Amino acid sequence: MKFVQPSERAINFWIQNNDVEKLEYALQFGNYKTRKLAAEALEIAGTSSSIPVLINAMNDKVQNVSIAALNALEQLGENDELIKTIVKKRFNWVNQINERKAKYEANKHKKYKIYRWERTSKKSFDRVKEQLKKPIK
Fold first, then answer.
1. Within this chain, do residues 84 and 124 fall inside the same structural domain, yes or no?
2. Axis crossing angle, helix 63-76 with helix 81-106, rounded to the nearest 10
């Protein structure tokens, strides 16, 4: 059975009518675009009852949904120290992922020296050690 995903217009209508239950349902069971829109909508119209759903969405496979849920949690849990701690740690995790990607992109074209050696059955062990220290020409 295939479900029809709500449009951005429907989600905006739910925001205006404070229909939090529908937004939470869309966040749990929608496709990735719907989940992202629902998380952003819960940042605006959400209540404290939306926090458990947002915590589950925080571990979403799609990073944009996870970040939208973190932003909504940060907005809704302003007075809760536990939520502040969770959001802070998760944002650090997201920053580490972004730093790893940037480091990979910066070093993508870097060339490394590869060493060649001969088989040990033909040469003595000391000669092989010397061969390992020399770069390939």
1. no
2. 150
